[in-house]
Amino acid sequence: MELYLARHGSAEDAAPDAERVLTKRGVEETEAMARWLRKLRLNLDFIWHSGKTRALQTAVIFHEKLEPKPKISQVEGLKPDDDPKAILEKLKTTVAKRGMIVGHLPHLGKLAALLLSGNAGGTVVELEKSAVLCLSNDSGNWAVRWLIHPKIAPDA
Questions:
Q1: 23: how many CB neighbours lie within 10 A of its CB?
Q2: Considering the entire predicted model, what is its pTM?
Q3: Which secondary-structure segment (H or E) carries 47?
Q4: Which of the four CATH numbers 3.90.1150.10, 3.40.50.1240, 3.30.200.20, 3.40.50.720 does domain 2-136+144-148 have?
Q5: pLDDT digits (tens, 9 = 90+) for 25-80
Q6: DSSP states along 65-110
Q7: Residue 155 has what pLDDT?
Q8: CA-to-CA distance for 119 and 135, rounded, in angstroms?
Q9: Contacts of 82 (CB under 8 A, 6+ apart)
């Protein structure tokens, strides 16, 4: 399986947490990332998001830019302070070959640590806003394939 962990784009600070929307910069950086990912022809089976406005907006941008269109859905267990073990269990039961999770810190960092080391504590990767981390699990163990963020994406 290939799994893409995507942190939501930059968001406004004025609204209550769940309602924070992407800034103009957040939209532009996420669109640049989506254009870059489109060139890779990822052929995603799904995009999961937390349901918070900024994560939903980020997921929709990826959904609109990627071909073919992956199924997009809100999934419980992706909020910033949720336990990543719930998502690990959900991943174990999915038959998908490629998927994207759009979420937040610290959850995405903990999920990456759990997948890569078996322990959700500590930091194994830094995810900037709009960044995408590609993980693969071909042999039963998760490994990092690449990490890209707007400052280094070729057309960002």
A1: 16
A2: 0.94
A3: strand 46-49
A4: 3.40.50.1240
A5: 999 999 999 999 999 999 999 999 999 999 999 999 999 999 999 999 999 999 99
A6: HSSSPPEEEE-TT-STTS-THHHHHHHHH---SEEEEEE-TTHHHH
A7: 60
A8: 16
A9: 76, 107
